[in-house]
């Protein structure tokens, strides 16, 4: 079986390189001293700096030096914001569709007249607004906004009132 380790030589100084000492640029192998020489780092020269503790050359985005584990790059606070998933949007779409169908079919079975159509459509809107407030704990009311538990409770009561108004024509 042939030896799979091919020895490489520096493109500039012809020094023999081990696998861990190879820096490549433009497809050519370079040793560390030639690669980090002034003017030889290629287009990404500004992306390297020295470790403040041990002096090893590290990439600018390296958080800790590989040699001495000293922090060399500041990291900020990372916040993960959960996106609204498409399944949540689809669930609300289905609920809205059911409420729309109810709002436009229930009054036709009612003997309360034209007022039942107005009340059912109003109940549909109030129910949707309340359900959104319960889910996201955020309810806008004109120039005032309710948040957290207040929005949940008002949304719950609003959804209940909306369902009552939606079902009122057949009660």
Give a brief rundown of this model.
This protein has 171 residues and is of the alpha+beta class. The chain is built from four helices and eight strands.
Which descriptors would you attach to this protein?
single chain, 171 residues, alpha+beta, Wheat Germ Agglutinin (Isolectin 2), domain 1, 3 domains, two-stranded antiparallel sheet, two-stranded antiparallel ribbon, 4 helices, 8 strands, 39% helix, 14% strand, rod-shaped
Q: Topology, pairings included?
A:
Layout: E1 8-9, E2 16-17, E3 23-25, E4 28-30, H1 32-35, E5 48-50, E6 57-59, H2 86-105, H3 114-136, E7 138-141, E8 144-147, H4 148-167
Antiparallel strand pairs: 1-2, 3-4, 5-6, 7-8
Helix pairs in contact: 2-3, 3-4
State the total count of DSSP E strands.
Answer: 8
State the shape.
rod-shaped
> Strand order across the biggest sheet?
1-2
**Domain count:** 3
The average pLDDT value, as a whole number, equals: 77
Strand content: 5-15%
The helix/strand class is: alpha+beta
Helix count? 4
What pattern of helices and strands is seen along the backbone?
A: EEEEHEEHHEEH
Which value, in Å, is the CA radius of gyration? 34 Å
- First-residue to last-residue Cα separation: 88 Å
Oligomer: single chain
């Amino acid at each position: 079986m042939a030896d799979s380790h091919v020895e490489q030589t520096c493109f500039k100084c012809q020094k023999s390189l081990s696998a861990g000492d190879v820096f490549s640029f433009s497809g050519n192998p370079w040793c560390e001293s030639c690669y980090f020489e002034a003017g030889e780092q290629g287009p990404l020269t500004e992306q390297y700096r020295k470790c403040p503790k041990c002096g090893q050359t590290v990439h600018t985005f390296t958080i800790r030096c590989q040699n001495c584990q000293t922090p060399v790059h500041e990291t900020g606070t990372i916040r993960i914001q959960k996106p609204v998933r498409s399944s949540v949007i689809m669930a609300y779409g289905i609920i809205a569709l059911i409420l729309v169908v109810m709002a436009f079919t229930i009054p036709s079975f009612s003997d309360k007249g034209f007022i039942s159509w107005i009340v059912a459509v109003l109940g549909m809107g109030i129910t949707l607004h309340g359900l959104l407030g319960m889910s996201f704990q955020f309810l806008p009311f004109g120039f005032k906004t309710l948040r957290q538990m207040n929005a949940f409770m008002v949304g719950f009561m609003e959804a209940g009132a909306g369902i009552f108004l939606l079902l009122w024509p057949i009660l």
